[in-house]
């Protein structure tokens, strides 16, 4: 695939990426394997460390008892990379290093292995920002602790190895504090089909992409492979952007998160115009404040309290209100956990007007939500509704049309969706009298 983008200096933003030719909406811009990656600690029991597939049962590495794999094939494929990590993990037991420490270590192992990595990737790693100068002392202190942990972790492989390994790194990354700072600022969260976080990865060439609260590209993962797709038509020389954060939030919230986590003030169009803020705060303030300030705990209480909160807010707060939408989404998760399918369907439908408003371009979150609604309808035997939610009529932007653009035709989730649609069609044929 000929690349249709190049790095450039984006006015006011430093490095960036721009298109070198027109890119159509839905086009796959690039597909990249991580330079280094690791499964999140909290998902390590359910996700294969080699292929990032989620499974009920996984084989466990008999030595570190930490890494888990689908089967022997995944395990033996992972071994050349896991061998050194395994020794470090064993040495540190019962302590287990955090995700960013494991990611940093796997980067060092990858760079110091004979097969090495391309110089281009090293080049961009060298240029990644660490933001150490603009960081609060408290944050710096937290990162120093991670850096010491990294030192200790690598030390398990051999007393002087940590020093040797450093020479494999580009000069600006040899200081572990600086390396950890670069990694936490530039790593990508790897998510599964349902968009739950399953790991973290480094894709140095894509770290140059700048943020926009209404980006023209989105990222979807297949295993740990990152696929970048255009969700708007992009013309030659136009900058490519992604969103670093969840965009379904108020301008003020987005700006705070971007400043805290990524150290910049977002000047995007959506921020400048406070786009959709008013709609997100629609309704009677006294009523939505209750929704905003609610603290909910376990699933059962959560479902009861959200039902209570939502009916108390009543018609005074529309479905598009941000806080109402958040509570409705939580109630949906709770109902699904408690296997209360009718309730789950009711809540899931209530989220759609908000999603339609706040994801004006095709977005994976919107597509996946519609797929969830359709699956509930299908399960509850509302076959026609399900098919409508999946496919829509006359080219409406529903699950299929959105995911065709955000995930592409061959993505496993899209294959799933097409199978579901086929099931619906068969069931409707059986029901209709001939
Ligand atoms: Zn696997
Ligand atoms: Zn192991
Ligand atoms: Zn913005």
Automatic annotation (TrEMBL):
GO biological process, one term: methylation
Pfam families listed in its UniProt record: SET (PF00856), zf-MYND (PF01753)
Span of domain SET: 3-245
Transmembrane stretches, start-end: none
Catalytic activity: L-lysyl(4)-[histone H3] + 3 S-adenosyl-L-methionine = N(6),N(6),N(6)-trimethyl-L-lysyl(4)-[histone H3] + 3 S-adenosyl-L-homocysteine + 3 H(+)
Enzyme Commission no: 2.1.1.354
One Gene Ontology cellular component annotation held by this UniProt entry: nucleus
Class in the EC hierarchy, top level: transferase
Top-rank taxon: Eukaryota
Domain (MYND-type): residue spans on this chain: 48-86
InterPro entries listed in its UniProt record: H3K4_H4K5_MeTrfase, SET_dom, SET_dom_sf, TPR-like_helical_dom_sf, Znf_MYND
GO molecular function, one term: histone H3K4 trimethyltransferase activity
The entry's keywords: Metal-binding, Methyltransferase, S-adenosyl-L-methionine, Transferase, Zinc, Zinc-finger
Protein's name according to its UniProt entry: [histone H3]-lysine(4) N-trimethyltransferase
Lineage: Eukaryota, Metazoa, Chordata, Craniata, Vertebrata
């Amino acid at each position: 695939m000929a690349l249709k983008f190049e790095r450039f200096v984006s006015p006011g933003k430093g490095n960036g990426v721009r298109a070198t030719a027109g890119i159509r909406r839905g086009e796959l811009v690039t597909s990249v394997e991580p330079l280094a990656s690791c499964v999140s600690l909290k998902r390590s029991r359910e996700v294969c460390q080699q292929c990032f597939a989620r499974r009920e049962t996984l084989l466990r590495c008999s030595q570190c008892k930490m890494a888990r794999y689908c089967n022997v094939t995944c395990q033996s494929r992972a071994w050349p990379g896991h061998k050194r990590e395994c020794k470090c993990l064993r040495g540190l037991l019962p302590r287990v290093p955090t995700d960013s420490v494991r990611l940093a270590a796997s980067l060092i192992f990858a760079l110091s292995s004979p097969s090495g990595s391309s110089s281009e990737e090293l080049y961009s790693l060298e240029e990644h920002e660490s933001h150490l100068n603009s960081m609060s002392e408290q944050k710096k202190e937290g990162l120093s602790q991670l850096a010491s942990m990294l030192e200790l972790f690598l030390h398990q492989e051999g007393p002087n190895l940590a020093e040797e390994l450093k020479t494999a790194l580009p000069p600006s990354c040899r200081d572990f504090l600086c390396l950890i700072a670069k990694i936490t600022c530039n790593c990508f969260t790897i998510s599964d089909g349902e968009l739950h976080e399953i790991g973290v990865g480094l894709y140095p060439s894509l770290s140059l992409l700048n943020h926009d609260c209404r980006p023209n590209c989105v990222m979807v993962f297949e295993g740990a492979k990152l696929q970048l797709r255009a969700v708007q038509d992009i013309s030659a020389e136009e900058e490519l952007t992604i969103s670093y954060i969840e965009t379904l939030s108020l301008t003020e919230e987005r700006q705070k998160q971007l400043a805290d986590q990524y150290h910049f003030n977002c000047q995007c169009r959506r921020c400048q115009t406070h786009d959709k803020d008013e709609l997100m705060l629609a309704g009677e303030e006294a009523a939505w404040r209750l929704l905003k300030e609610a603290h909910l705990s376990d699933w059962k209480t959560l479902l009861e309290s959200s039902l209570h909160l939502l009916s108390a807010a009543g018609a005074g707060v529309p479905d598009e209100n941000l806080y109402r939408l958040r509570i409705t989404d939580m109630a949906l998760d709770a109902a699904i956990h408690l296997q209360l399918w009718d309730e789950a369907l009711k809540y899931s439908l209530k989220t759609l007007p908000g999603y339609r408003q706040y994801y004006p371009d095709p977005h994976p979150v919107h597509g996946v939500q519609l797929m969830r609604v359709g699956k509930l309808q299908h399960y509850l035997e509302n076959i026609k509704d399900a098919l409508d939610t999946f496919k829509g009529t006359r080219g409406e932007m529903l699950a299929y049309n959105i995911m065709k653009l955000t995930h592409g035709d061959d993505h496993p989730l899209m294959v799933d969706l097409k199978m579901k649609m086929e099931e619906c069609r068969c069931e409707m044929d059986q029901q209709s009298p001939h």
